[in-house]
Design a protein that fits this description.
This is Protein nucleotidyltransferase YdiU. The active site is at residue 288. Belongs to the SELO family. Its EC number is 2.7.7.-, 2.7.7.108. It is an enzyme of class 2 (transferase). It is globular and about 65 Å long. Among the domains are: 25-220, no CATH class; 383-450, no CATH class. It has a 5-stranded antiparallel beta sheet, sandwiched between helices. Strands 1-3 form a two-stranded antiparallel sheet. The chain has a two-stranded antiparallel sheet with strand order 4-5. The chain starts with 47 loop residues before the first helix and ends in a 16-residue tail after the last helix. By secondary structure, it is α+β, with helices and mostly antiparallel strands. The protein contains 18 helices and 11 strands. Helix 16 packs antiparallel against helix 17. The structure holds adenosine monophosphate and magnesium ion. Adenosine monophosphate (AMP) binds at residues 125-130, 156-157, 160-163, 284, 288-289, 298, 300, 519.
Length: 521
C-alpha cells in the first residue's frame, strides 16, 4: 500500500543540536580568488545569496574547460531567462556555461550545507564540485539561480575530483526536462557542455558541466549547516532569505518562521505526491537533496518505476530500501523533521514549546500529502472533483494490489485506462493475468463516470524509460548525440501521443533485466 506510513523511520523532532553535540563551529576557510575574467555582454548576474549569507558562500572559480563543446541546450528555458541562444552557443556563452567567463560584477561562490545521508549526519558537505554563478532576474522580478555542476574542486570537495562525466550530466538534462514537461516542480537544465577533460571513474570518461537553473539552491541541509554553526543571527537571516524568495506569504504570519516551516512542509508534501503519481523514484533523498522551494533537485540515481511495486529501488547503494518508491513520503516527512529541528530556536525561546510547535507543523505533512496524492489519483482515474473521499480512497486503494500482483507497468496502465473509460477495456485487461478483480474494479469505476479526455491530459504516454535513457547516454558518451536529442524531443510533450513513437512508450524489454543506477556520478 503506498498511502500508508510504515513507522520504519521515526520522524519525531528531537534536540539533535542541544549541548553542541554536533555543533559545527568551524568557519569556512578564507579563500583568495583571482578577479573574474571577461564580461559577458547579455547577462547580468546578481549576488544576493553571497551578499546576504556570506558565511555560507565561499568565493570560488570554475576550473578551466580546455575544449568546451555544447552537448545540449534548452532553448525554451534560455528564452524564458532572456538569454540569447546564438550568444550562448558562441565562445563567451560557452564560457558562461562552464563558469570560465563570467559577467563583470558577478560573485561566484561554492555554497555550504550539511546533510543527513542515508540517515547519518554529515556536518560539512557543500558544493564539492558545483558553483553558484549568481542569480538571474526574471521579467516578473523573481530570482533564479544559475549554477554549475562539475565545474572543478572547491574547498568542499573532500576526496572528490570536482568533476562530472558527460553521461550523468546528460541524464540530469533528460530527466529534469521530462519532469518539467510533466508539470512537476524541478530545477532545470539549461545546458550541458563537454569540457574536453577526462574524468576518471571506473573507466576514463569525457567530462562535462551542467548549467542548472533553480528558484534557489537552499536545501534542508543549508538550514542544518547554519543551525550547527550556533549563530542564531545567521539562522534568522537564512530563514528571512528563504521566506523572501520562496514563501513570501509567511512574512505576514504572526510567526513567520513557523509559517516558513509550514510552507516547506506543504510544498514538499505536494511535490512527493506528484512524484508518486508518475512513478518517479528519486533515489537519494538525503536532506541536502531536498529544497526549501519545493523543487525536485539532484538527479543522481533517480529512475521511473515500471512494474508497480512499492519496494522498487534502483540505486546500487540503497541496500536497505530507505529511498524505495513507497517510502518516499515517509522519508520526506523524516527530512522535514530534521528541518524543524534545525529551526527550533526561531520557533520559540523555550525549547520545549518550540518542539511542540514544530511537531504540530510537521503533522500537516500527512494531511497535505494524503490530500495531494488522493487528488492526483482521482485525476489519473478520471473521476469527478466532487467525488467523496470515502468512495474514492477505497476504490483507489483496491487498485494497488491488482497492479502489484500483475507486475503492471504504472505508466502504460493509466494511459490505457482511458480506453476503458471510452468502452474498450481490452488494453488494460491485457496487462493482468487474474482478470476477476480487475473486471470487478473496472465495473465499479466506470459506474462513477470517468472522463477519458481528462485522463489523457494527466496520464503521460512518455516518461524517461530506463532502457532508453541508458541507450541514449551510452551513445552520447561515444559521441552520438542523436538518441539523446530525440529522447528529449519526445519527453517535452509527454501527454501527446504521436504515431511512430511507440518504442518510446513501451516498458523495457525483458532482456533489459533489473535496472541499477549509480551514485558515483
Ligand atoms: P550528491 O550525492 O550529488 O548529492 O553529493 C553529495 C556531496 O558530495 C555534495 O557535497 C557534493 O558536492 C559532493 N560530491 C559529489 N561528487 C563529487 C565529486 N566528484 N567531487 C567533489 N565533490 C563531490
Ligand atoms: Mg546533492
Amino acid at each position: 500500500m503506498i498511502r500508508t506510513f510504515p513507522n520504519r523511520y521515526l520522524t519525531h523532532v528531537g534536540t539533535a543540536y542541544g549541548g553542541g553535540a554536533v555543533g559545527h563551529r568551524r568557519t569556512l576557510e578564507e579563500v583568495s580568488v583571482a578577479p573574474s575574467p571577461v564580461p559577458g555582454p547579455t547577462v547580468r548576474l546578481g549576488h544576493r545569496f553571497a551578499d546576504e549569507l556570506p558565511e555560507l558562500a565561499v568565493p570560488w572559480q570554475a576550473a578551466e574547460a580546455p575544449e568546451p563543446r555544447l552537448l545540449a541546450l534548452d532553448e525554451e528555458l534560455a528564452a524564458e531567462l532572456g538569454l540569447d541562444t546564438d550568444w550562448l552557443r558562441g565562445p563567451d556563452g560557452l564560457g558562461l556555461l562552464t563558469g570560465t567567463v563570467v559577467p563583470e560584477g558577478a560573485r561566484t561562490v561554492a555554497q555550504a550545507y550539511s546533510g543527513h545521508q542515508f540517515g547519518g549526519f554529515s556536518p560539512r558537505l557543500g558544493d564539492g564540485r558545483a558553483l553558484l554563478l549568481g542569480e538571474l532576474s526574471g521579467p516578473d522580478g523573481d530570482l533564479r539561480d544559475l549554477h554549475l555542476k562539475g565545474s572543478g574542486r572547491t574547498p568542499f570537495a573532500r576526496g572528490g575530483d570536482g568533476l562530472a562525466a558527460v553521461g550523468p550530466m546528460l541524464r540530469e538534462h533528460v530527466v529534469s526536462t521530462a519532469m518539467h514537461a510533466l508539470g512537476i516542480p524541478t530545477t532545470r537544465s539549461l545546458a550541458v557542455v563537454a569540457t574536453g577533460r577526462k574524468v576518471q571513474r571506473e573507466t576514463v570518461l569525457p567530462g562535462a558541466v551542467l548549467a542548472r537553473v533553480a528558484s534557489s539552491h537552499l536545501r534542508v541541509g543549508t538550514v542544518q549547516y547554519t543551525r550547527a554553526t550556533g549563530e542564531l543571527d545567521l539562522l534568522r537571516r537564512l530563514a528571512d532569505h528563504a521566506i523572501d524568495r520562496h514563501h513570501p506569504a509567511a512574512r505576514d504570519d504572526e510567526a513567520p518562521y513557523l509559517g516558513l516551516l509550514r510552507s516547506v512542509v506543504d510544498v514538499q508534501a505536494r511535490l512527493v505526491a506528484q512524484w508518486m503519481a508518475v512513478g518517479f523514484v528519486h533515489g537519494v533523498m538525503n536532506t541536502d537533496n531536498m529544497t526549501l522551494s519545493g523543487e525536485t533537485i539532484d538527479y543522481g540515481p533517480c529512475a521511473f518505476m515500471e512494474a508497480f511495486d512499492p519496494t522498487t529501488v534502483f540505486s546500487s547503494i540503497d541496500e536497505g530500501g530507505r529511498y524505495a518508491y513507497g517510502n518516499q513520503p515517509v522519508v520526506a516527512e523524516w527530512n522535514l523533521a530534521r528541518l524543524a529541528e534545525a529551526l527550533l530556536p526561531l520557533l520559540d525561546e523555550s525549547e520545549e514549546r518550540a518542539i511542540e510547535i514544530a511537531t504540530e507543523a510537521l503533522g500537516g505533512f500527512r494531511t497535505a500529502y494524503s490530500a495531494a496524492f488522493t487528488d492526483a489519483m482521482r485525476r489519473k482515474t478520471g473521476l469527478p472533483p466532487g467525488l467523496a473521499d470515502d468512495v474514492l480512497v477505497p476504490l483507489v486503494d483496491e487498485l494497488f494490489p491488482i497492479l502489484r500482483s500483475g507486475h503492471v507497468d504504472w505508466t502504460t496502465f493509466f494511459r490505457a485506462l482511458s480506453s476503458a473509460a471510452r468502452g474498450d477495456a481490452e488494453p488494460v485487461r491485457g496487462m493482468v493475468l487474474d482478470l476477476r478483480p480487475l473486471d470487478d474494479w473496472l465495473e465499479r469505476w466506470r459506474a462513477l463516470g470517468p472522463d477519458a479526455d481528462a485522463m489523457d491530459r494527466v496520464n503521460p504516454v512518455y516518461v524517461p524509460r530506463n532502457h532508453l535513457v541508458e541507450e541514449a547516454l551510452d551513445a552520447a558518451t561515444a559521441g552520438d548525440l542523436g538518441p539523446v536529442e530525440r529522447l528529449v524531443d519526445v519527453l517535452r510533450a509527454p501527454y501527446d501521443e504521436r504515431p511512430g513513437l511507440e518504442a518510446y512508450a513501451a516498458p523495457a524489454p525483458p532482456d533489459f533485466g533489473s535496472y541499477t543506477t549509480y551514485c558515483g556520478t
